[in-house]
Design goal:
PRTase_dom; Rossmann fold; six-stranded mixed beta sheet; three-stranded antiparallel beta sheet; 4 helices; alpha/beta; single chain; purine salvage; transferase; globular
Length: about 180
């Protein structure tokens, strides 16, 4: 599996340190707000787990499964809600925890949905930001790392319908011959 990686963009240690940094900032920004942290499945799982351990404010966590990739390497533009929240966002401060902000389509739809459901505020924390991939006008509020336009895997990010590479402890660029 590691041999399929062209280069490592973000190491396990860098991720650990960034989660501490982001957790500290979120702790301060939300110390008296008791926000709902929403993880967008499945890629967010390692990030939300490590991030939550570093937030010292009261938080509630819920998950939503929203897809726009459907097994490929690029967003299809079709947004599907596969699993909705169990918790109401009405009257809540919401923090969306994302593994990566790429095209921005999915995120923009989810933010709009939460606002229409009565969230007091909706902010985004992302481990990875890929601004060169952006198709819609959207920015994360808290960014771990800005990365180039490349197909990345690891630390929750997968390739294909088989979801390989999510278990890598780092973020790496997948060799083109693996997916071409």
């Amino acid at each position: 599996m590691h041999n399929d990686i062209k280069e490592i963009l973000v190491t396990e240690e860098q991720i650990r340190e960034k989660c501490k940094e982001l957790g500290s900032v979120l702790s301060e920004d939300y110390k008296n707000k008791k926000p709902l942290v929403v993880g967008l499945l499945k890629g967010c799982v390692p990030f939300i787990g490590d991030l939550a351990k570093n937030i010292s404010a009261y938080i509630q966590i819920d998950y939503m499964d929203v897809s726009s990739y459907h097994g490929g390497t690029q967003s299809s533009g079709e947004i599907r809600i596969l699993k909705d929240l169990s918790t109401s966002v009405k009257g809540r401060h919401v923090i969306i925890a994302e593994d990566i902000v790429d095209t921005g389509r999915t995120l923009k739809e989810v933010i709009s949905l939460f606002e229409s459901r009565g969230a007091l505020s909706v902010r985004v924390v992302t481990l990875l930001d890929k601004p060169e991939g952006r198709i819609v006008d959207i920015e994360a509020d808290y960014i771990g790392f800005t990365i180039p336009k490349a197909f990345v895997v690891g630390y929750g990010l997968d390739y294909g319908e088989y979801e390989f590479y999510r278990n890598l402890p780092y973020v790496g660029v997948l060799k083109e011959e693996v997916y071409s």
